[in-house]
């Protein structure tokens, strides 16, 4: 939904009639994941994508029919092998797209997302009923479909989409590695905050893509920020007078990831100090230290990539293994 948020805001304000198309099922080489969105107006505007181009024209036509009739539709589309190849796939696939008129719950969701407030949208794929629940959604970040059947008959069919706050990367320590890390994170769609008590390090010249620069001690800075499951914290300071306050500030919070740069010995020293302060083994086990995946390279860019790769694996439940090994296990 975020990929079409600006268009939805503008078109709603302009009084456009809008249809919302959502990928709710995929088989084979689907070009777009579950939850992918495309929006279409009665006047002919469109934004977003449900297939990277191969069925957008057909979805546009179906959306116009939905806007005319007022009735939602679950449409199935096959992606032929030759068409799949033209959009970069090895073979064809099949997707189902639910098309409905934009309703009050969707407008409410746009408002919540614009304010960076979390919510969950539940859509009945039989009736088109939409139910919006505000607040941080539990469990996975991924959209899912839930069907209920009895004796082979479909009783209920819901599509559940969690919308957390935008993923927020907090980097503690404006050191050299933090520069490529903050750039990579922005490229991946994160909101980025850089914290350092040293004003000469935390500058806009060094971190031009950061959404926020905070010159303060880590614990003081953390007290100003929302720390929840959408928050990913990387501590790069490698100095106990910064590391320990930062760890104290986040270990008791339900953040999505905590990483701390340094050797195994450095991390053990940190953990020993925190144990004496009363932090539990369960809390300490949440710290990824040494931080990042082992990609072999040791430069700042490779280290930053390894850190963001580990965050991505944790965020989406990936193994961090070679894909050829993952596929071999399936």
Keywords, separated by commas or semicolons:
single chain, 330 residues, alpha/beta, six-stranded parallel β-sheet, five-stranded antiparallel β-sheet, 11 helices, 32% helix, 27% strand
Tell me about this structure:
- By secondary structure, the chain is α/β, with parallel strands linked by helices.
- The protein has 11 helices and 15 strands.
- It has helices at residues 5-13, 56-69, 81-86, 104-114, 178-187, 218-222, 240-251, 264-276, 281-284, 300-316, 323-328; strands at 18-28, 37-41, 46-48, 73-79, 93-101, 119-124, 130-134, 144-150, 153-163, 168-172, 191-195, 212-214, 231-235, 257-260, 287-288.
- The chain has a 6-stranded parallel beta sheet with strand order 12-11-10-13-14-15, with helices on both faces.
- Helix 5 links the parallel strand 10 (168-172) and strand 11 (191-195).
- Helix 1 packs across helix 4.
- The longest helix is centred in the last third of the chain and has 17 residues, at 300-316.
- It is elongated.
- The relative contact order is 0.09.
Q: Strand order across the biggest sheet?
A: 12-11-10-13-14-15
SS element count, helices: 11
- Please estimate the helix content: 25-40%
**Largest sheet composition:** 6 strands, parallel
Give the N-terminus to C-terminus distance in angstroms: 31 Å
Number of strands: 15
Shape: elongated
Helix and strand composition category: alpha/beta
Task: Detail the poorly predicted runs.
Answer: 87-91
H-E order: HEEEHEHEHEEEEEHEEHEHEHHEHH
Sheet-strand content, in percent, reads: 25-35%
Average pLDDT, rounded to a whole number, is 89
Mind telling me the C-alpha Rg? 23 Å
